[in-house]
Structure formats: structure tokens, C-alpha cells
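Hello again, I could really use a second opinion on something today. I've been staring at a protein lately and its backbone has me curious. You're getting the sequence in one-letter code plus the fold written as C-alpha cells. I'd be grateful if you could look everything over and explain what you see. No rush at all, and the record is pasted right below:
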Amino acid sequence: MTDPALVRLDVADAVATVTLDSPANRNALSTSLVTSMMQHLNTLTGRTDVRAVVIAAAGPVFCAGADMREAATEGMEAGARALVALQRLILSLDQPVAARVHGPVRAGGLGILGACDVVISADAVTFAFTEVLLGLAPAVISLTTLPRLTSRGASETYLSGAGFDAHEAVRIGLVTRAVPAEQLDEAVAEVTSQWAGTSAQGLRETKALLNDSVLRRIDDLGEQVARQSAQLFASEEARAAMQAFLSRTR
């Protein structure tokens, strides 16, 4: 079951903006939110009047990662497969996709950034692969983040779970550009206006070339990492860590 209010789609001047709009849980990736996001993105397939897609978020946080309450009660088997499918959809969409990152991004939210073609972030934003702190691994999001990150950057951020800033995210390949917050909209508009002035066919075919190896990686490993993620979320160690996390956030 989906809740269309969790995600908004707006189209103007050849740019479609998909906005995560669930600030009450910091835009956590519930199955409903992910499914709603995919439904909106699927409507853009074949639309030559749309040359660019922006993924944005409402509220102070861009994305907190997995919905821990849902994972603690329902498990992550469906959620893990849904996140694999979402990443693949973003990568294979006809139009290039830019992420507009105004607030913190954690864990599963980083998989969305990895799937985007360009990521523009406010320079005060922080990021973290927090899975290791909860007895988990960034299994599903490794599909899109490992191909973007430097190997040393991946080891440092994956294994520590520590936060890092937008400039470090640029250095290790997760983010394309970090700008002052007041310049964020201008920087995103600069990218999308460039895309809007090009050929729909040219964008589609060039994006396919750029993302071919990542898509093949998802097709080869998607089911394997989804199972791994579900098993880790169901483990005794992870469930205890999630319950401790939820008790702190009540």
C-alpha cells in the first residue's frame, strides 16, 4: 500500500522534481515512500518534454535511511528489494537525474545519491554510512555507492560509520559539487538548464553509456545483497541495536 502524500512530483520548464515529503520520520525509506517514489518516476518514462529530473526533500533532513520502525516490526525483505529496484530505476530512467541535497543523508539515503547522475549538496550537509554501528552492512546501497567512491574512501566511510562533510563527499566521489546553502538552487538550476537545452535522444543514450556497468552490477548482485540485507536486519545483534536506537528517538 502506498501513500501518495509521501512523495510529490512537479513538472515545469522541462524539469521534473520528485520531492520526498515525509519530514515526520526524516524522509526515512519506508516501503510506502519508496513505492510512491517509483510510481512517480515511472510516469516520466518516454516523456521527451522532460529533459531533467531533480530528487529533492522537504524538511530539515534529506533522508535518514531505512525506516527503523518498519524494519523492526516487519523485517527488511520487501524493503531491501524495493530499494534495489529504486536504484535501478533512477539509473535507467530516460532522463538524467540530479540530487538536490539540503540536509543530512544517512545509510540507505546514500544509495539514492549513488544512483543519481549528478549530486549537488549544500556544503554544511553531513553524510554517514551508519550500518556498521547497528550490526548491519551497506549491502543494498553498495550497488550504487561502491562504483562512485574511491576504494580508500569506501573503506574509511563504510567501516567507521563516522560522519563526513560535503567537501569530503566530493573528494571521495559521492557528491559532484558542494556549494553554500544559499547557492544550492542556483547550482541545481545550472545543471538542469544545461540538460534542458539538449536532445532527449542524446541524453537518453549518453546516460545509458555512463550507467551500463552499474546497471549490470545491479542485475548480477541485486538479489544477493537484498537477501544479505534482510538477513542482517533479522539478526539478533541488529534487532537489539535497532530497538536501542528507537528507544533513544521516542
Observations:
- Residues 200-234 form the longest helix (35 residues).
- The chain has ten helices and nine strands.
